[in-house]
Amino acid sequence: MKKLLFILLLFVSTSLFAQDADVKGTILNNATSAPVEGASVSVKGKLAGTTTDSKGNFSLNVNKIKLPLTLVISAVGFEPIETSVNSTDAKVGVKLVQKAIVLNEVVTAATRINQSILKSPVSIEKLSLKAIRENPSFTFYDGLQNIKGMEAVTSSLTYKQVNTRGFNSTGNSRFLQLVDGVDNQTPGLNFSVGNLFGASDIDIESAEVIPGAASALYGPVAFNGLLSLKTKDPFKYQGLTVQIKSGLNHFGESAVKPQGLYDFAARFAKSFNDKFAFKINASYLTGRDWYATNYTDISASTPVAQRGPNNPGRDALNIYGDEVSRTLPGIGLVSRTGYEEKDLMNYNVYSLKLNGALQYRINNNLEAIYQYNYGRGTASYTGSSRFDLNNFVLQTHRVELRGSNFFVRGYSVAENSHDSYNTRSLAQFINRDWVKDLNGTTVTPDKADDTWFTRYAAAYNGTVNGVTAHDNNVARAFADQGRFLPGTDAFNKAKDASIHNYGLAGAGVFSASKFYHADGQYDFSSAIKLFDLLVGGSFRDYRMFTNGSLFDDKTNKVTIQEYGSFIQAGKKLFDDNLNLVASLRYDKNENFKGSFTPRFSAVYTVDKTHNFRASYQTGFRNPTPVDQFIHLNVGPITILGGAPNNSKGMNVYENSFTASSVSAFGAAFGKAMQQGTPFPQAVEQNKGLLKKSNVAYIKPEQQKAFEVGYKGLAADKLLIDVNYYHSSYTNFILNTVVIQPQNTILGSDGNVTTAAASDIPNGKVHAFQLYTNAPDEVSSQGASAGLTYLFDGGYALGGNATLSVFSLKNANPNNVAAFNTPKWSTNATLGNSNIGNNFGFNVAWHYQTAFDWYGTFNGTLPGRVDSYSLFDAQVSKKLPAFKSTIKLGGSNIFNKHIYQSYGSPAIGAIYYVSIVFDDLLK
């Protein structure tokens, strides 16, 4: 890094104020002849570029660029244009045509090179800078849900997870999110925490979404799709921008009154002589998080008709600690008294983002970049429990050398979980700190649960003087004597102690993991001429560290290396109306066999604006570091990742019984003993019921997908986009339980040994939860259609609908990842950036049908997510004299409290007002 900075400073000192040939000109508004400030002016095929000043003037250094050249000129709200320059003596004059929405956007993500969105070989969506500025949702990231085919799940005010084409989850390791080419996932969680550590609204230039498998070009994480976020280039977007936003949420809620939300952001960028540029960003969002207050009784051991607040064995969804239960003789199922989530979770959430970048143009075809991002925040996350990501930190460093036809990039991503914790574990640990025995003595935590149930039984059975017998409420009150009440010093002390105690001894979550990544690509198309050719590759090195709280890494280093490379060739035929593209990627993780992921596509263009496409693409997903190397002994069971090295020497995969056969043997053996059969004979008679497990080591998930579609532009006013896809999936990653005896399972004759069978009733066994893959194949299919129409006067009306259908075929549903996707989802938008006197508006509507949500939070049992609709709206007023825009808006303006995943909080309305000052100090 020091060497890079030295090189940058050297180039600056020698070249910053050099006098070279310049192209000068003026950019005007075609309708008003007013100057267009901030228009981007660049040389086609080169990195050289600049922006216009307040009078629409520009001066662009074109030294060593051969004339004639082509200038590409664009600005927000205008149709881009190209113009030829034959001499540096003549002044360029260009008038841009205003457009409410530019329907023929340029996208990069689909093929990793710039191309028209109309001619993309696969489905792709784009949120432009104009759409981001006029987004009616509280943040631009919230507005992603209005993109066709996009799914969103809100776990927290500061954490929204996005996905496409099914198998959604609250922590989605099947969907890749890039920010300026940097994978935004946290190394320990193995997924991006929404935009908690991303970029601020005022620094985002565009968002591109590829729904469906994108592994052929982007590797293993892009199994379900890709979200590529691009921030603003300091050469193109200069000056000071300040955003001040304030809002309110929690309307109509019983648990909390309306609370304030605050979002402050500032960005400053400056370039010097179109050679050196820098930018700095700072943003801070804070507010009161959504409350998870669904107290539905989900006790799996209680008949549905008997569940509810009066159930002694109640297990409420968002109450924790009550999942600890016992069946007491003569009483029935009883659960411990739990704590509500609001007393355990830190709902005072925030997101701090700091960013800085240095860019130096070594010449017109070569640019060096260094970028640093620091993110710190608090969010609630719904996983196997509700987790508090408290003061979580994610840092990235990026260095890149970029040319007009290549880039080489390296970056690091490091996390620190700080004060993060598991709320369910926290409640259980607090519950074990205060229990007294029948003599009034506080017992040690290891005896607390047994003692509490003993107290309950004694009170219910009438053996405690002065306590009414056979009353569950009275028995619970007696058992709860001495319970720490939320808000008391004793409760807060116990809570703090457990949060900062990691591993099995406490609720704290510790991770200081990181990964290093390098990638690059080169476009040979200009040199080959006959066809287009693009090649690239990547390398990643994970270095995990949880200090023994999740991995066996106190003394053993947990590292994972993987690499991949791709080649993509394209050929245009029939007067460039048919474009054929084929790509092939190979990826290798050190713990698995290599995977080839091909993609073939064709786009046929009719009359320049009607484009028909078809593609076959494949995807794969490597098991995450947790899938591979978790090594967590939780007492009666050890959770063990599926990488071969993780269980080396333990003989678990090779020498264990299936859990179901052990249950069958145990029942038969117990019955035989009750009938008077001696121990050795009872074992010998029933050992044939035992089955050796046949669990394979974990391997990557696989997908094959076929897609057809059409995208066309009619009369330069109507954009039409339709598609259909069919995908098949194999090797879903899952968990299975096996029982390992101390002795060898099979003898030389291939039969179960008596010694191994005897280990079971003698208690000489240990249970393991192993990570492996499902043998079943499933499929999904879907279709989507979208229309966007531009009316006279700048009005834009858009609508889309998406159908998603899942087929289990003959698969065991217990072996398949949950689809978690509504059958139908629809969106509609209407807006105009200037209806008169610089007033504008935008309205967005989203609707989706009901479906069953399956997740680890509810023990893989289904929980209903009801159908819902959301309306977001904003009105804005531009104040040109003050270079500012005032916006008044709301998300979910009708305040419908909706759940987007089972166990997560209900999301209500946010009403806000913001003011943005732009182009200051320019």
UniProtKB/TrEMBL annotation:
Bilayer disposition of the protein: Multi-pass membrane protein
Pfam families given in the database record: CarbopepD_reg_2 (PF13715), Plug (PF07715), TonB_dep_Rec_b-barrel (PF00593)
Question: PROSITE patterns under this entry?
Answer: TONB_DEPENDENT_REC_3
- Where would I find the TonB-dependent receptor-like beta-barrel domain in this sequence? 371-893
Please indicate if the UniProt record lists Electron transport as a keyword.
no
- The reply to whether DNA repair figures as a keyword in the UniProt entry is no
Q: Which domain of life is it from?
A: Bacteria
Name of protein: TonB-dependent receptor
- Protein's organism: Mucilaginibacter celer
Subcellular location(s) per record: Cell outer membrane
**What GO molecular function annotations does the UniProt record carry, in alphabetical order?**
siderophore uptake transmembrane transporter activity
Signal sequence, renumbered to the chain: 1-18
UniProt domain TonB-dependent receptor plug: residue ranges: 118-225
| Keywords in alphabetical order | Cell outer membrane, Membrane, Receptor, Signal, TonB box, Transmembrane, Transmembrane beta strand, Transport
* One BP term from GO: siderophore transmembrane transport
InterPro entries in UniProt: Beta-barrel_TonB (IPR000531), Beta-barrel_TonB_sf (IPR036942), CarboxyPept-like_regulatory (IPR008969), Plug_dom (IPR012910), Plug_dom_sf (IPR037066), TonB-dep_rcpt-like (IPR039426)
State the GO CC annotations. cell outer membrane
Q: Main location per UniProt?
A: membrane
The entry's family comment says: Belongs to the TonB-dependent receptor family.
